[in-house]
Design a protein that fits this description.
By secondary structure, the chain is α/β, with parallel strands linked by helices. The chain is built from nine helices and 17 strands. Strands 10-11-12-13-14-15-16-17 form an eight-stranded parallel beta barrel. It has a four-stranded mixed β-sheet with strand order 4-1-7-6, with helices on one face. A three-stranded antiparallel β-sheet has the order 3-2-9, with no helix packed on it.
Amino acid sequence: MTSTRTPVEVAAGVLIRRDGRFLLASRPAGKPYASYWEFPGGKVEGGESVAEALARELHEELGIDIGVAYPWVVRLFDYPHALVRLHFLRVFEWSGELHAREHQSFGFFSTSDLPDGPLLPATVPVLRWLALPPLYAISAVAQLGRDVFLRRLESALARGLRLLQFREPALDSAGAAALFDEVLARVRATGATLLVNSRHRTLWDKADGVHLTAADLATLKQRPEFGWVGASVHSNAEIERAAALQLDFVAAGPVLPTPTHPHYPPLGWGGFASVIANSGLPVYALGGMRMSDLARAMCHGAHGIASLSAVWADDQCERLDASGVLSASFSSDPAIE
């Protein structure tokens, strides 16, 4: 029983190159699951932070010195040999030449080009999370009008937008359906992904997935059978429920003041970090977000940002490099407040 075992705290580094490929290493001979491929890292020692442990382990194992390690997702895995709490951190910058100090194999891979050999079970869900882009846009016909929104959607898709939620509560069923078809055609043409808000139930089967309102999340007994399922959350308890239902991600907020949700007091960055602490799913920061907030959001544990209003401005959906981030976003290191 997991309740009788004390979790071993482990830092796992997800190192991502500018071309989007990520580092995997095989487990050395003599260790449990020897030759299985994993994201490298190791145990957190007494007195260390998770980021410090990751920096030490990667230097000891691979001879590199890492830059900022962005907190990401925390998952508990019950292996026969140990109960481990894996703290996954994303790293985009490092120095030094990689070499196998423990005689392990390593390399940079993509989800369509994985190493020969088995993957450690804890590694598998991370591959799906890596498919999520850092920007999650929400449709805004009510704010912009149909024609303006469709023009800006085309522009945003051309500049790199890859994940969109269709959410138009002001439209009746017929109006929502007609607009949805126009949005879907534009999204399909670029290979992007379109989710539909759960309030539009008649459109669920047309989309690539569903984004659940917090109310719908509370009533569901199991994950809807769609390719992608996300949810809106406002508390740690709701995040835990989403994880229990095996959803793919959540959007939490509002982080900053937003005119679209004036009845929700903003969390602030400190409150956001507290709500999503040890989240078992990737989390998008929602509420007042602009592309300039991406690095700060990641420093506070977010996967990326979700935006309803600012994203449709001409200067917001900038091209991302293949790693899924803007190089300019990491020219500074915003501190955790």
